[in-house]
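Quality-control log, excerpt.
Job 1 of 2 completed; input and output follow.
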Amino acid sequence: MATDATHTGFNGADQPPSWRVTRVLGVPVAVCANVFAAALELKQRGGGQIVTLNAEMTMAARANPELGAAIAAADLVIPDGAGVVWALGRQGFKVRRSPGIELARELLQYAACHGWRVALVGASPEVMESLRERLSREIPGLQLVLTIHGYQPPELWPGLEQEMCAARPDLVLAALGVPRQETWIQRLHQGQPGLWMGVGGSFDVWAGSKKRAPAWMGRLQIEWLYRLIQEPSRWRRMLALPAFAWKVMRQG
């Protein structure tokens, strides 16, 4: 990402980006007024990797050097989780939480209106089949040039990746889970013109196989509780949340 500095305006790809980059527990994150506008700016600048950062991923990046390196190299890291927004607030930055699932959907709608070529990667074969049907119905004009489920045999991935890069899509959404989606995107997106973004469980929600937390839980910033109720096996991963809060407070 860009160095820690404030930039305003956009006059071309040779100019610094309009957002500021700061750090939460050593992990870079962008401070910007509108993440959708920032994503479109990134596309105009030639494309790049978008990461949606929450507290759990922040702690994972500190423990996993490969994930940490992928996030550090990303072109736009947005504050997806309430914990990251809270940590930024303690630094004096007043930003809104920007859920990745909402940014990704907004980008799909924009893509349909502007003739972008879109590729989807990840989730199960059943989810991908349902997702293709639903998105084609719900977003008229969406050009899905490639859809690849995430349960491919290992020997098929090199060929699928070559096909992906040859297609040169304008938008790639990868639902391969953390850290795989971030490291996979980092490896493939170099030299590509589009936006490449990890979207976690968004495909499952859009396909109707899972439900997103109610809006009131989002307003109270307890969507993590809804996910835990849906998937009790996540409880070990959720231990990262109090650890994150403790480390942020210790930093003052």
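Job 2 of 2 completed; input and output follow.
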Amino acid sequence: MKRIFYSIILLVSFSLISGCGDDKAVDTTKVSADTPVKEKIRIGVEGAYPPFSQVTSDGKLVGFDIDIAHTLCANMNADCELVTQDWDGIIPALLAKKYDAIVASMPMTDEHKKKVAFTHRYYQSPARFIHKKGANDTLSKEDLAGKNIGVQRGTVSDKFITGEFGEGVIIKRYGTQEEAYLDLKAGRIEMFFADAFVLLEFLGKEEGKDYEFIGKSYTDQKYFGEGIGIAVRQEDTVLRDQFNTAIANIRKNGAYEMVREKYFEFDIYGK
């Protein structure tokens, strides 16, 4: 039933066949090192964006972004250190040289490009609304007027809701997805708007069983950019090119698919 549920959701939302990946380990130590990198690379990650990045109860960083970072580092023959950082400060910390790159599901928007340089994409994703099952909601601006809509603060989802619905709705901003889910379940917000893949993770859990997607997917390039890329400082063109080579390498040698299959049973890279 879970697989059927997922398939219906993403066939409607993004023409994808959905499901949950298994927990098989990804062996990044066997990825060929085609792009030698001598110095240590520090990588900023969020740790609060499952299934892409989260911290387990025993303090371990896990998720698609985390595994991709390790896989790229293995391909680059690089000594990498992952540094957790709240989303609100993730670009400022990069510019302050707290780390050298960001692997944190960052959309390649025009606004972000004013501050950082991006690699080629390593995945892409739509955004969607969720609400309580059986709620008599529509997504017209008239029907949304006065409703409490949750978003993660400072994300492209925040900017989309502000730009497209901001004058009529009450926008409630949260530091993490989990904070928003708590308010959704408590009835303090009627809807939550975020990355469809991340919301799918919530809907597949016991805590999300009473909620569902509503309406269409949103991929407007004005807000959501050209996909998800790795961010580096604008002057770090050599590091950007090394990441680009590594992304191409792991796409070719199967390492990317090993990571993807661990979390998703559908393509997230796109054509």
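Post-run check on job 2. The two ends are 29 Å apart (CA to CA).
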